[in-house]
Amino acid sequence: MSSENSAASKVWFITGTSRGFGREWAIAALDRGDKVAATARSTDSLDDLVATYGDAILPLQLDVTDREASFAAVAAAHEKFGRLDVIVNNAGYGHFGVIEEITEAEARAQFDTNVFGALWVTQAALPFLRAQGSGHIIQVSSIGGISAFPNIGIYNSSKWALEGFSQALAAEVADFGIFVTLVEPGGFSTDWGGASALRSETNPAYDALREKANKLRATRQSVQGDPTATGAAILQVVDADAPPLRIFFGETPLATAKADYAARIALWEEWQPVSIQAQGSPE
Question: Exposed/middle/buried for 41, CB within 10 Å: 0-12, 13-18, 19+?
């Protein structure tokens, strides 16, 4: 899987580096001598990395929901380092609430960060990547980007949207020498479900469903991954000659995906006679 160019220093642009995967991947890149443009809503969270890595890291204040600011941040990174090799759209958050509970403001905010934030950064980076004839865009999705679970439906829908535009993007930019990879983590020991998450006001009608959903989530995530271990994994992905369009991080998502897709295919096959009927008779 390793490329002959894997030893060459890379320039990364990573959103959401204050914590979680973004921070771990920035450290992994910096530790091996790469350069990193690291964005966060507050660059104070990056002070320790600047103290450790000096000019190898460019801290950038960024709210990814601001399209103009996203374009400016990407341009600043390119101006500082002269190229961009790996773009990581990591900024995002989870939102808990059943669909009936989600307010308009909550739904728009979820998509503004998880979908449009990634879209703006991607659009900002593409002209630079096309001009240099290379690059790798990493989109941080989730097992919830290919399956859906009760009480996080608006989060699921945002990640499904990210998956959709990213798969189309991969086909659009392949001829320019640009790769796209969707990283789909399972449960990890981050604060995704804690301080980083938002929650809708609860409707008592769904209390029983919510309790059941929480138990199912605890079962799915009974084995929590170590975020620090993902640093070595993401380096293998970006150094590969032929990076995958999709890759799970963690052991459990594959079983979830297999069961989900098997059920989908079985249901489609069961209803295929009706599907054919809906097509009508050829004239």
Answer: middle
* DSSP bridge pairs for 138: 88, 181
Looking at residue 5, its pLDDT comes to 45
Q: What's the whole-number average pLDDT of the chain? A: 93
At 189-226, the pLDDT tens digits run 666 666 778 999 999 999 999 999 888 877 766 667 88
Q: Find the angle CA(275)-CA(277)-CA(280) to the nearest 5 degrees.
A: 115
Cα distance between residue 257 and residue 205, in whole Å: 30
The predicted-structure confidence for 222-266, as pLDDT tens digits, reads as follows 667 888 999 999 999 999 999 999 999 999 999 999 999 999 999
Domains of the chain, start order? 11-253 (3.40.50.720)
**Residues identified as active-site:** 141, 155, 159
